[in-house]
TrEMBL record:
It comes from Deinococcus aerius. The keyword ATP-binding applies. Keywords: ATP-binding, Nucleotide-binding, Transport. SUPFAM superfamilies: P-loop containing nucleoside triphosphate hydrolases. It comes from the Bacteria. Residues 21-252 form the ABC transporter domain. One of its GO terms (molecular function) is ATP binding. InterPro entries: AAA+_ATPase, ABC_transporter-like_ATP-bd, ABC_transporter-like_CS, ABC_transporter_ATP-bind, P-loop_NTPase. This is ABC transporter.
Amino acid sequence: MTATMTRPARTASTAPQGISLTLDGVTYRYGRSRTATTPAGLGPVDLRVQPGEFLCVVGPSGSGKSTLLSLLAGFLRPQTGEIRLGDTPLRGPDPRLTLVQQEPALFPWRTVAGNVAFGLERQRLPRAERTARVEDTLRLVGLEGYGPRRVHELSGGQRQRVSLARALAVQPQLLLLDEPFSALDDRTRTVLSDELLGIWWERKVTVVFVTHNLEEALALGQRVVALRGGEVVLDGPARELSVGQLRETLEE
Ligand SMILES: Nc1ncnc2c1ncn2[C@@H]1O[C@H](COP(=O)(O)OP(=O)(O)OP(=O)(O)O)[C@@H](O)[C@H]1O
C-alpha cells in the first residue's frame, strides 16, 4: 500500500445507490469453551453505516472481524440485537448485498463471463440484458474482452477482479469485502485498491471492507472501526486517525 493513493476524480453516476446498515446491540457468541471464561465471538456492537459510506474494519486475529462479516452477510444470525439494511431487518442472505472473500471462489468449469453471470441467473434478466450487464461489469473491473477465457488462465489479481465483478454485477447496495487483496503482491494490491475506490466512487455503493492491514484501512476507508476482543474500541474518520493511534488502541 502506498501513501500516494488518491480518490479518483470521477463524476458519480446515478445508480445504484448504497443502503444504510444498522447494528443495534448485536451479539454472537460461539459455544463456551473449557478454558475461556467469556465465550469468544462478537458484541454487543452498535454501529450505523451511512448509505454510500466506505467503512473499513480492522482488528487483530480473533478480534471478531469474520464473525461480524458473517453476521452482515446473513450466514450467522445475531443471538441478541438486530441488523437492519435500510429499514428492513436482515433475516439471512439478502439479494441487496454481496460478499467478496479473500480467496476468489470461482467456478473453474465456467468462463469468466459465466462466473460473472452467476448471480444474475437468479434475477431472471432477459439474456441480452444479462450479457450487457456482464460486459459492463467486466469493463468496470478492467477485464474487458476477458469474458470467453477460462479462470485457470488468469493471474491471482485477475481472478480477484472476476470475483469483484461477480459481486458487482448484481448491483448490490451493500458490498462486503473480507481481506480481498491480502493474497496479492503489493503492486497488484495497490492497483486493485485504487480501482475499488474508483468503482465505489462511481457506484456509490455502501462498502464494509475488513482488513488486518492498518495502512490499507486508512488509505481506503472514509471511516475506520477497530475491533478488539469482539468489541468496538475505536470508531472515527480515517483522515483523523493514524496508524500509530490504531496500533496503540489495538495493543492496549
Ligand atoms: N466456529 C467457531 N467456533 C468457536 N469459536 C470461534 C469460531 N469462529 C471464531 N471463533 C472465535 O471467535 C473469536 C472471533 O473470531 P473471528 O474469526 O471473528 O476473528 P477475526 O478477527 O476474523 O480473526 P482472523 O483475522 O484470524 O480471521 C475468536 O476468539 C475465535 O477463536
